[in-house]
Specification:
Blueprint: H1 3-9, H2 11-33, E1 44-49, E2 54-59, E3 79-87, E4 96-104, E5 128-131, H3 144-159, E6 164-167
Antiparallel strand pairs: 1-2, 1-3, 3-4, 3-6, 4-5
Helix pairs in contact: 1-2
Length: 172
């Protein structure tokens, strides 16, 4: 049976076949040229809620402090950057720990700033202060107590006989 005979005996089948043969390339061309919105993964950073003592994830470009659902902490937003580590590679059985918290100096209320750290309104400051999650006092990182806080994560890893690993949240 020839194609012409098939067409004459079954006109509906011939029309259906023609539609299918036209739909396939049309669909492909439409799919190929249809504008797409490219999803770029968002880099995230850990922040620490000073009220709830929990880690939260915030876009990495955020300097902090950030407002949290728990409200303010001693006159400032409660979310501050947390520097999170593990001893050795992060795996299911590896414990993460917070090495220290940091926040820009100008975000800390004056009564909570380390002695001698003042803000010059004429100059844009890049100074920040640090503390342990268990402390209530912020420290100048250039002082002996601040340097001790910086050294603690490395010392913890060394004591465990492992390398120190910086832990960041997965990109979303």
């Amino acid at each position: 049976m020839s194609l012409q005979t098939l067409q004459e005996n079954n006109p509906a089948l011939a029309v259906t076949l023609a539609i299918v043969l036209l739909a396939i390339p049309t669909s492909f061309i439409t799919w190929w040229f249809w504008p797409r919105e490219e999803v770029v993964p968002q880099k995230m950073a850990y922040f620490y809620d000073l009220n709830t003592n929990e880690l939260i994830e915030v876009p990495a470009g955020t300097t902090g402090p950030v407002e949290t659902d728990s409200g303010p902490y001693r006159g400032m937003p409660a979310g501050v950057r947390a520097n999170v580590y593990s001893c050795g590679p992060l795996m299911e059985d590896t414990e993460m720990f917070i090495g220290y918290l940091e926040v820009p100096l100008e975000a800390v209320p004056e009564d909570q700033r380390p002695p001698g750290m003042k803000i010059d309104p004429e100059v844009e400051s890049t100074d920040f202060v640090i503390r342990r999650p268990t402390d209530d006092q912020w420290y100048n990182p250039d002082t002996e107590p601040g340097l001790a806080i910086f050294r603690e994560p490395g010392e913890k890893a060394e004591k465990a006989g492992k390398s120190l690993t910086v832990v960041v949240p997965f990109e979303r």
